[in-house]
Design goal:
The complex is a heterodimer.
Chain A: H1 6-15, H2 17-27, H3 30-35, H4 44-48, H5 86-100, H6 112-115, E1 120-125, H7 128-132, H8 135-148, E2 155-160, E3 172-175, E4 179-181, H9 189-199, E5 208-209, E6 216-217, H10 222-225, H11 243-248, H12 253-261, H13 264-274, H14 286-295, E7 302-307, H15 316-323, H16 325-339, E8 343-349, H17 353-368, E9 384-390, H18 399-406, E10 430-434, H19 435-447, H20 449-453, E11 463-470, E12 476-481, H21 486-493, E13 503-508, E14 514-517, H22 527-532, E15 541-546, H23 551-565, H24 571-588, H25 595-610, H26 614-618, H27 621-629, H28 631-639, E16 654-656, H29 665-669, E17 675-676, E18 684-685, H30 695-699, E19 705-707
Parallel strand pairs in A: 1-2, 7-8, 7-10, 8-9, 11-15
Antiparallel strand pairs in A: 1-3, 3-4, 5-6, 11-12, 13-14, 13-15, 16-19, 17-18
Helix pairs in contact in A: 12-16, 12-19, 13-14, 13-16, 15-17, 16-19, 23-24, 23-27, 24-25, 25-27
Chain B: H1 20-33, H2 41-52, H3 57-67, H4 71-80, E1 92-97, H5 100-104, H6 107-118, E2 131-136, E3 148-150, E4 153-155, H7 163-172
Parallel strand pairs in B: 1-2
Antiparallel strand pairs in B: 1-3, 3-4
Helix pairs in contact in B: 1-2, 2-3, 3-4
Classes of the chains: A alpha/beta, B alpha+beta.
The complex binds flavin mononucleotide, iron/sulfur cluster (SF4) (3 copies) and FE2/S2 (inorganic) cluster (2 copies).
One FE2/S2 (inorganic) cluster binds at residues 97, 99-102, 138-139, 141-142, 145, 147 of chain B.
Protein name (chain A): NADP-reducing hydrogenase subunit HndC
Region (Disordered) (chain A): 26-116
Pfam families (chain A): 2Fe-2S_thioredx, Complex1_51K, Fer4, NADH_4Fe-4S
């Protein structure tokens, strides 16, 4: 059924309300409520003054044990709202009331006959993370159980995208009760149906336990307190495989508004005024890019959505595509309208089957409704979208390389200028934008630039999505206003470092970024401040490292990656990264010399200067930033022949602690007989003779031997 | 739209009646269905790898012939992208995730253990043709790191001790 007018779109929106009705009472505009609770202090004033951490000279002063004890700081500002938003606040209060009351007695505990009629919706996370832990089976079991009890008509089971709280997946949320279950297994399904859906009793054991006070939480998890989900506004809320749910929540209204009420130049002006900057790493003003495009000569022009997501520890763009593909399609159509393009491509890795599938579904459905394709919504504007597949090459994320790859060739970057906006795909002006950038576009057009520009810092507006991973308690997908500090992300949202270990560094920007030490945790995040401390925003990978991580080894890991991924065009990048990697390998093997540190710095500088594309230009960052903040670790490897984190095989030390009960097992098994001690007494390892085979550690019955 | 659905990362597509001719026929059919050809080289290679399991020389030559482009160009593209392989893969493809999140949670140890259990290095195939071991970077399940993927199924929070058992399931299949 093609929608020929805005009215038709509105009718479909109204008809589709029933799909989301049950959810609407609880969660439809959660981020709007949050708008009032953005921490006041996260704003611009702080952004200007980058803390001491940025100076090379100051690296000695590493404060010990930063932040581990910090976890009590659950943000209290859930209720603290901006004065200007009193109206909203009142609305919120009502909503809060509605939501909090029902728990024991209310909806859940309603009279049995009433319960038996209630319409309910069960949301189950269908993101990659949760699918890996059987969420598909949970859905299948749920449908089966419901059918067996003839409840399938009043209980909808909806497969959503990522909720963000991947650490505790699979996630399930039940509405209208607004109850959030974690770590659900397929075997829990009968109990959920029986107890919760039928009896109205919540399953305590599947609720999140707040580690701070042991309280079981049905909703409002601390993980979400400081988040502001704009790009992720629909992720974990709607069914990505049903465009009607997107439309019910106002989807494609921005496109309709642009087509019938705005000139292309007004769309561009709006995006420029919003301050939106590219989320693919560079941070170039999106509005400006569109304006340059619109001025380019020539008829045919293209929009490309860059969904390559090469950072090897990040999954933001993929999650947006999996959870809310239509917002990206709508963003592309808006971009097309603004710059006068009729054709768009999405460049995505073939290795992301789920995202590909959801995109294909979304394109098919949107085209079916006439929201893409010929004469959109009965206007004169035509815009079609085609998917193009990458084949696993990091450098293809770079826009010129990406264009060559779409043209069917080797994905090698070319010299800029000409920029793609001048001469891109098949020689035509081409606008390349990142997935997250595009996902922000519809909501900006819908709500206006002023609304968006309120959020964030002076130079970086809006929010940023991060894939928080590594040694952090709450691995997941988080979205925060620009200007939020790393400490807030890692400790308040992320719940701190795993196993109570000491925080060592945060890595942002993937292979192009750097490692940020503890003394920089209070830096408000935006494009400029991260560059200032030797890292970069990148596309949003954020990896937490703890005391057990060796920074030399981390740098080596990234260099291994760039050596692998360098396309080989420039000598500095191809050979230079190899040399950097060799030097790092030497150091981790205990064969380094102090001069190597100068060599790393010097070579790093050369590679930065002499490389053609961003891959080479940023490849030395992981080395240079670790050298800057963790020089002592490099020195320990070289001078003391010791890896302080105990990671580097050749430089680890095995020592026997006071836990030793003197059983003599280790001494008997040591191949070089370097362990001394008498029975029932603590044994000692002769470090000079130890060959670090690890046998003793494996054999000790009481785990008294540590490697450090 | 005649979009090629790229295959699950590793699986060879089910071919009803096996034979090589049938495989080439499938490929020809796909190429014929495309509105434009040369520009779709990468999509064609994806489909070909799905059909043949890998992209050996004769398949590359055939594609060059179909598109009327130099074989060197086809080879240039195949060798550029890590997803394409010229060697036939084993029955089961084992992938250790070596993305950053898995790296910091001990992926290297898992990789060593898989190599030990299978008696091959990453990038190789066992002699009996049962397993090919590869590595990939971030499957998007970082919360479950370290991650092991076999034939597209993701195993999360893998411990060194479990590797043998997990592989065992596939030895019998
Ligand atoms: C080596 C390299 C890899 C890149 N990878 C990506 C990527 O995976 N995703 C992305 O959106 N941009 C990536 N970029 C940035 C793109 O070149 C381009 O700037 C971006 O897609 C523009 O979109 P934006 O303005 O919306 O950020 C990469 C750049 C370089 C140099
Ligand atoms: S810098 Fe590296 S990746 Fe970029 S074009 Fe040069 S060789 Fe290729
Ligand atoms: S690591 Fe090996 S060589 Fe060293 S003390 Fe233990 S058993 Fe002996
Ligand atoms: S095996 Fe362990 S407990 Fe026994 S002597 Fe050695 S260190 Fe002590
Ligand atoms: S994949 Fe389910 S919460 Fe992220
Ligand atoms: S790094 Fe392994 S799943 Fe993300």
């Amino acid at each position: 059924m093609r929608l020929e007018t805005t009215d038709a779109l509105n009718r479909l929106r109204d008809e589709s309300q029933r799909l989301i009705e049950v959810r609407a009472q609880a969660r439809i505009e959660p981020w709007e409520q949050q708008m009032g609770s953005i921490p006041e202090d996260s704003g611009a004033e702080k952004a200007e003054s980058i803390p001491e951490c940025s100076g090379v000279e100051k690296t000695e002063s590493i404060p010990g044990g930063v932040g581990v004890e910090d976890t009590e700081s659950v943000p209290q500002n859930a209720g603290e709202k901006n004065k200007e938003e009193v109206e909203d606040q009142d609305k919120d209060k009502d909503k809060d009331k509605d939501r909090e009351e029902p728990a024991p007695e209310g909806a859940g505990g309603a009279a049995p006959e009433e319960r038996a009629k209630r319409e309910m919706t069960v949301l189950v996370c269908g993101g990659t993370g949760c699918q890996a832990s059987d969420s598909e089976e949970i859905i299948a079991r749920m449908r089966k159980e419901l059918a067996a009890r003839q409840m399938q008509d009043r209980v909808r089971v909806v497969k959503t995208g990522c909720f963000g709280f991947c650490e505790k997946g699979p996630i399930m949320e039940i509405h209208p009760d607004d109850v959030f279950y974690i770590e659900v297994s397929p075997d829990d399904v009968p109990a959920i149906v029986e107890e919760h859906l039928i009896q109205g009793r919540y399953l305590e054991r599947l609720l999140y336990v707040n580690p701070v006070n042991g309280e079981r939480l049905e909703r409002n998890l601390p993980f979400y307190h400081r988040q502001l989900r704009i790009a992720l506004r629909h992720c974990g809320l709607i069914a990505p495989e049903d465009v009607k749910e997107y439309i019910a929540l106002g989807g494609y209204q921005a496109l309709a508004k642009a087509l019938f009420q705005m000139k292309p130049s007004e769309v561009i002006a709006e995006i420029r005024a919003s301050g939106l900057r590219g989320r693919g790493g560079g941070g170039f003003s999106t509005g400006l890019k569109w304006e340059l495009m619109s001025r380019a000569e020539g008829g045919q022009r293209y929009i490309i959505c860059n969904a390559d997501e090469g950072d090897p520890g990040a999954f933001m763009d993929r999650s947006i595509l999996e959870g809310d593909p239509n917002s990206v399609l709508e963003g592309m159509a808006l971009a097309g309208y603004a710059v006068g393009a009729t054709h768009g491509f999405i460049y995505i890795r073939a290795e992301y089957p789920l995202a590909v599938h959801r995109l294909q579904t979304a394109i098919r459905q949107a085209t079916g409704y006439g929201l893409l394709g010929e004469r959109i919504l009965g206007s004169d504007f035509c815009f079609g979208i085609e998917i193009k597949y990458g084949a696993g090459a990091f450098v293809c994320g770079e826009e010129t390389a990406l264009i060559h790859s779409i043209e069917g060739g080797r994905g090698e970057p070319s010299v800029k200028p000409p920029y793609p906006a001048q001469e891109g795909l098949w020689g035509k002006p081409t606008c390349v934008n990142n997935v997250e950038t595009l996902a922000n576009v519809p909501i900006i057009i819908e709500r206006g630039a002023d609304w968006y520009a309120e959020i964030g810092t002076e130079k970086s507006k809006g929010t940023k999505v991060f894939a928080l991973a590594g040694k952090v308690n709450n691995v997941g997908l988080v979205e925060v206003p620009m200007g939020t500090t790393l400490r807030e992300i890692i400790f308040d949202i992320g719940g701190g470092v795993k196993k109570g270990k000491r925080f060592k560094a945060a890595q942002t920007g993937g292979p192009s970024g750097g490692c940020i030490p503890a003394q920089c945790l209070d830096t408000p995040i935006d494009y400029e401040s991260l560059l200032g401390i030797g890292s970069m925003m990148g596309s949003g990978g954020l990896i937490v490292l703890d005391e057990d991580d060796c920074m030399v080894n981390v740098a080596k890991f990234y260099l291994e990656f760039t050596v692998d991924e360098s396309c080989g065009r420039c000598t500095a990048c191809r050979v230079g990264t190899k040399r950097l990697h060799e030097i790092l390998s030497r150091i981790t093997e205990g064969k380094g010399e102090l001069e190597d540190l100068d060599r790393l710095t010097e070579l790093g500088g050369i590679i930065k200067d002499a490389s053609l594309c961003g891959l080479g230009q940023s490849a030395p960052n992981p080395v240079l930033s670790t050298l800057k903040y963790f020089r002592d670790e490099y020195v320990a490897h070289i001078v003391e022949r010791h890896c302080p984190a105990g990671v580097c095989e050749a430089l680890a030390r095995y020592t026997i602690t006071e836990k030793c009960i003197g059983c003599t097992v280790c001494a008997k098994n040591c191949p070089v007989s370097c362990i001394a001690g008498s029975p029932k007494k603590q044994h000692v390892i002769d470090q000079e003779r130890c060959i670090r085979c690890g046998t003793c550690q494996a054999k000790c019955p009481v785990d008294a031997i540590v490697r450090k | 739209m005649s979009q090629s659905e790229p295959g699950q990362m590793t699986q060879q597509a089910e071919i009803p009646d096996g034979g090589v001719n049938r495989q080439f026929a499938l490929l020809d059919e796909f190429v014929a269905s495309l509105p434009y050809k040369k520009e779709n080289l990468i999509a064609i290679l994806h489909r070909a790898q799905e059909i043949f399991g890998s992209l050996p020389e004769e398949v590359q030559m055939h594609i060059a012939y179909l598109l009327d482009i130099p074989a060197a160009k086809v080879y240039g593209v195949v060798s550029f992208y890590s997803f394409f392989t010229m060697k036939a893969r084993g029955r089961h493809v084992v992938n250790v995730c070596t993305g950053t999140a898995c790296f910091v949670r001990g992926a290297a140890k898992i990789q060593l253990e898989v190599e030990k259990q299978l008696g091959i290095k990453t990038g190789e195939t066992t002699e009996d043709g049962l397993f090919t071991l590869e590595s990939l970077r971030c499957v998007g399940a970082c919360g479950l790191a370290p991650v092991l993927v076999i034939d597209g199924k993701v195993y999360g929070k893998v411990e060194v001790g479990q590797v043998k058992e997990i592989l065992g399931e596939y030895r019998e299949k």
